[in-house]
Amino acid sequence: MKKRKITLFITLIMFISLSVIFISGCEKEEKVETKVIKIGAILPLTGNLSWLGEPENFTLNYFIKNRMKNPNINFVIEDSRGEPKTGVNAANKLISVDKVNILITSTTIVSRSVSPISGLQKMPTFALCMDPTITEEYDNVFRVFDNVRQESNILNNYIIENKDKFKTKKVAAIYTKVPELEKATTNLILPKLKENGFEIGPIESYTFATKDFDNISTKIQSYSPDIIVIMGFGNTYPNLIKSLHNYEILKKAQIFGGLGFLEVPLDFSREYLEGIIFVVPKFVVSDGDDIKDKLFTDKFKEKFNREVTFDAGYMYDTLILITMFVNDMMKENKDISLINLKEFYSKIKKFNGFTGQIKLLKNGDADVELALVKYKENEIEVIGKY
Predict the structure, then answer these.
(1) 9: number of Cβ within 10 Å
(2) Confidence of residue 91 (pLDDT cuts 50, 70, 90)
(3) What is the total count of domains within the chain?
(4) How far apart are CA 189 and CA 149, in angstroms?
(5) pTM for the structure as a whole
(6) Mean pLDDT value across residues 319-343
(7) What is the dihedral of CA 285, 157, 111, 291, to 10 degrees?
(8) How far apart are CA 23 and CA 17, in angstroms?
(9) CATH classification of the domain holding 188
(10) What digits encode the pLDDT tens for the residues 102-160?
């Protein structure tokens, strides 16, 4: 009898032990390891283009804090200084050390330097740059940004439609010597105007280091154009515009340009810009009722003492698109891959972002909503929306 009790006791102990092991095993099987998605951002936080990188970085951090609802998406931010070599070094670190799944690059010159590297890894790369051809040249690159193709078309159409307003139909051009603005000026704008009966005169370029523009102004003055196309970066404009003013060129010629005129430093007198016609993202001239994220707008103005800039707006929309994609892939338990991103693009086709409606194109590029405006009495007057 005693032996029987001992046997039953041992059997009971073994049963309980096995049950505990089984239950523990089931709990372990039910625990699914959550994958962390890393996104690397290469921004010009310092250097000559930090005026672009600072708003982009602010937007990124705001988005993480206030809009990012997925705790499994992490960001790693690197400074490119706006330099290709530094950008490439940052990309190599992000890819090989940090093991990021997606890259964000800022400025055309850095994006073009990084794209071949990320392309070898077939890594989805979102470029904050104005050159639309980058998505055609690099299969892994996507863009949600204003582009010189759209800007050039809008300027050409307006100038050609108002052809009779210009007496001599003589055109001069000035641009900052970077690839996308050279293409816009020499490949897109001027050839189209020449086809439509305009005479093309001096085509002048300058670098970020240029301070004295009198040589350019002398050439423009001697040609006496009634149209001057200026495609450049706003932080370079004060000395250029003052020089054109001193040579009394601004009184005689109509100035046309791109969104660089939106980024002229705030301490530069808008009187010099009177009458200039240029292209801007439509959201910067939208009514207050159209604001998509008032908290962001208020925080941005508090930080920078100005309205949301174009680069910040497109960073915001790039982040919307990336998080939509990542959340979709995680929900369906799919990989963050180039193939899956392209399939995702083909499905959504367009979305409403901070800057307006974004139309996604098959080649990875995007068309955004723009407006043609004019500086009038220190204010921006809308001529048309596109």
Answers:
(1) 10
(2) very high
(3) 2
(4) 9
(5) 0.82
(6) 95
(7) 20
(8) 10
(9) 3.40.50.2300
(10) 999 999 999 999 999 999 999 999 999 988 899 999 999 999 998 889 999 999 999 99
Task: Tell me the average pLDDT across 22-43.
Answer: 66
- What is the per-residue burial (b if ≥16 Cβ within 10 Å, else e) of 353-372? bbbbebebeebbbbbbbbbb
CA pair distance 305, 301, nearest whole angstrom: 5
Domain-located, residue 363: no
pLDDT digits (tens, 9 = 90+) for 229-255: 999 999 899 999 999 999 999 999 999
Chain centre to alpha carbon of residue 382 = 23
Closest listed residue to residue 145, CA positions, set 42, 56, 48: 56
Cβ–Cβ under 8 Å, residues 287 and 261: no
- d(Cα 225, Cα 254) in Å, to the nearest integer? 9
The answer on pLDDT for 4 being more than 70 is: no
**Cβ-count burial of 145 within 10 angstroms (0-12 exposed, 13-18 middle, 19+ buried)?**
buried
Task: Kindly state whether residue 225 falls inside one of the protein's structural domains.
Answer: yes
Same-domain check for residues 196 and 253? yes
**CA gap 226, 234 in Å, rounded:** 22
Cβ neighbours for 353, distance < 8 A, ≥ 6 positions apart: 144, 292, 316, 317, 320, 321
Confidence of residue 289 (pLDDT cuts 50, 70, 90): low
**Residue 364 placed within a domain:** no
The answer to whether 200 and 226 have CB atoms below 8 angstroms apart is: no
> Helices 294-304 and 50-66, interaxial angle, to 10°?
140
CB 381 within 8 A of CB 374: yes
Sign of the dihedral through C-alpha 81, 83, 84, 86: negative
One-letter amino acid of 325: F
What is the domain extent for residue 64? 37-129+293-353
